[in-house]
Amino acid sequence: MNIIEIINLEKHYSEAELLIKAVNKVSFSVKKGEFIVIVGPSGSGKTTLLNLIGGLDSPTSGEIFVDGLAIHKMKQDQLTDFRLFNIGFVFQAYNLIPVLTAKENIELIMKLQGISQKECNKRTAALLEVIGLSERADSKPSKLSGGQQQRVAVARSIASGPKFILADEPTANLDSHSAEALLDTMQKLNQNEGTTFIFSTHDPRIMKRAKRIIKLEDGKIIDDITYN
Amino acid sequence: MILKLAIINLMRNKKRSFFVIASIIVGITGGLFGISLATGYVNQLVSSVIRYETADVLIHENHFFDYMEPSAYILNSDQLIKNIVSEKGIKAATARIKINGFIRSALTTANVEIIGVDPKKELLVFPINEAIPAGKGNYFADFTRTPIVIGSILADQLGANINSRLVISGQTINGDFFSSAFWVCGIYSIDNKHFEKKSVFIPIDELAILSGLKVDEVHEIAISLEKNYQSSDQIVSELESAYPNLKISSWSEIRPEIEVTKSYINLTQNILITIILFAISLGIINIMLLVVYERKKEFGMLRALGMNKVRIFQMILSEIIILLLLALFISTLINYSVLSFFDQHGVPVWTVEDVNTLGLGTVERIYPVLRWQQFSFVTGLIVVISFLSSIIPTLRILKIRPTEAMKN
Lengths: 228, 408
Ligand SMILES: Nc1ncnc2c1ncn2[C@@H]1O[C@H](COP(=O)(O)OP(=O)(O)OP(=O)(O)O)[C@@H](O)[C@H]1O
Ligand SMILES: [Mg+2]
Hints:
The structure holds 2 protein chains of 2 kinds. Chain A is of the alpha/beta class. Chain A has one domain (2-97, 145-151, 161-226): Rossmann fold, CATH 3.40.50. Chain A has helices at 46-53, 76-86, 102-113, 117-130, 146-159, 176-193, 204-209, and strands spanning 2-15, 18-31, 35-39, 61-66, 69-70, 87-90, 164-168, 197-200, 212-217, 220-226. By secondary structure, chain B is an alpha+beta fold. Chain B folds into 2 domains: 2-49 and 258-407, no CATH class; 63-244, no CATH class. Chain B is built from 15 helices and 11 strands. In chain B, helix 1 (2-12) packs across helix 13 (309-345), helix 2 (14-54) packs antiparallel against helix 11 (256-294) and helix 11 (256-294) packs parallel to helix 14 (372-399). Chain B is elongated, with a radius of gyration of 31 Å. The chains are: A alpha/beta, B alpha+beta. The A-B interface holds A 51, 54, 56-57, 77, 80-85, 87, 89, 91-95, 97-100, 107-109, 111-112 and B 1, 5, 8-9, 11-12, 297-298, 300-309, 311, 402-403, 406, 408. Magnesium ion (MG) binds next to helix 1 of chain A.
């Protein structure tokens, strides 16, 4: 079953009289449980594409369906609520609220969703276990390494039970060891829980683990390979 | 969650939060103190007027105020007083003769209202003996020659002291003039300077003889009530139906300008505190916009994750309301201690004469009072202001585009 359906998606920017087709007639679909990596040179439109799928930006034309819902037709306020309940985000940086502890950051979205404290505690404890940071539950982000912070961000994105997780270059600021640890965590979640991941990256370490690689160039898909 | 986040956020920049709270405290404390001064002033004015000038209710002959002439007098005052005092809610009543006249010393002459009183009964209604300081004589308790009690302002004006000889003169009921010498027996001093300046007291039988009135013919019956002055209107209407031929007035009818001043001062104070709070609000909006700017990436992230506008508003509102309520709480504590200090000492009013522009009488010291109503008005206003101040920062946050804010 397809959880994401993208049809003829376009996003244009005009910069100083110049029309930039950041995403140019892109179509593809995503099944539940996929582990997709979007690759391509800098400026090829990876971030723009993820922002469109995540409802952070609206397309110039084309359609995006998530679970059959036409999110390209949604208004700002609807999109905000849609994101809260359906999509997990892991950004390259600025993922965590600096004044909240790791545990509180993981709980944040669940709290906004109105999940009870008891349920929050349960899920958070389990996720801290998965990301291997149970000991650091009460540490502030500034006391965690970049890799640990990203793992907390992954835990937060998954805690709220989203339909899929979007991660834009999640390993860009990490050293090799931290990157591997983060990827282990995500792969584990993908295999054990069937969580759907969509990445954008330049990182060959991520590509190695991908089940499917979508290659972008100048806003167009030039390759879409699925591995077994 | 949101409340907790608000508290933590305020702790982020403790110095700034401290200064914000401190300046709000200055504003609110000043405003509250201003209000309590004004209220204290009005209360004192009212109680001073009731205590020494008008009592709670006054009775006159129907035309007394039309002509202001000695001939407008009440008959059978003794019997009348007996009847009145037997009514429910009335504590005491006293009869007085009132004649406009002059007082003359070796130095100068002044315009006065000569009030003829029966000291014993008078003291049950007007405790003016309490307003005579030590060394300034007494209220017809101890004298050798025909006594007169005058106010200290008038005494200064006339250059008179205890036992000074003064000559009063005025009109008899037949239109003739009388003139007679009196010796100062007591000098009183009250907050109501307007009254103090123009009112002199002599025994009622002396004034009756001088003016040509008989024993129980008087101009005025002053009544004090059991309860406080608020029930005076009710008593007035009861007495009005019982004595249709007499003019019954409550203190506020005699001095209507006091009620007017009261509401005028109230209004001014409310406007003042509203202006102060709006100024505070502008300051808060400014600070919050700075905060939004500083935490732009964070707000962008929260928006991206799905925090809607209601939640954003709640978050900003929580931060503002915590600041304001904390400041209000501390201001209240400060005001409470300041008020309890001045409750004993009073706030000296230096420009005694200048304040008297409204002709209402002045006070030497103000004992500030903060009424619950006014405090809740300020509290309510603070809540309103918190909401208003949250709007602009929230709108600013909603303008943040998450994709832009989180770009490197
Ligand atoms: N807000 C914007 N205004 C104008 N042009 C933009 C904007 N955002 C992106 N672009 C342009 O769109 C194109 C795609 O940008 P995008 O950020 O999606 O690339 P990317 O593949 O994520 O690159 P990178 O690997 O460097 O992150 C680029 O040419 C970029 O300059
Ligand atoms: Mg990018």
